[in-house]
Amino acid sequence: MEVSGAAAQLADDRRLDEERAEVWALALELHAQVTHAVAGVASAGPLREEAARAALGAAAWIAEASGRPSGFERRHFLLTARAAVLETAELLDRLRVRRLLADEDHRAARRTIVALLAHLAPG
Questions:
Q1: 25 phi and psi, to 5 degrees?
Q2: Residues 6 or more apart whose Cβ sits within 8 Å of residue 63
Q3: In the prediction, which pLDDT does 120 show?
Q4: Domain residues for 107?
Q5: Rounded Cα gap, residues 119 and 25, in angstroms
Q6: What is the CATH number of the domain that holds 37?
Q7: Measured between alpha carbons, how far apart are the two ends of the chain, in Å?
Q8: pTM of the model as a whole
């Protein structure tokens, strides 16, 4: 590899690391938002636990993908993370429809979900 090629590869690696860090930060933010939003909602029961579990699962799958080389395995874990983010969105929608989740908490989590999904888009 030429020096200029090595420098370009290093720059690409740094951009990838920055993107991974951003996705990881968003996943942690979503988990914190969901955990906070449902913490005081005892009547939500299993939905509360499922929403927190799905958000935590998204972060875990993203972490798992980060440890994999590029290729099929990494893509598999990122798609699984995307599914967990979508599951989180669905559960938050159900909580909001049942009036167990404040609109403000729902909007904040949805913004994070949209940002995460932009990074986890298939293809």
A1: -60, -40
A2: 24
A3: 92
A4: 3-119
A5: 12
A6: 1.20.1440.60
A7: 28
A8: 0.82
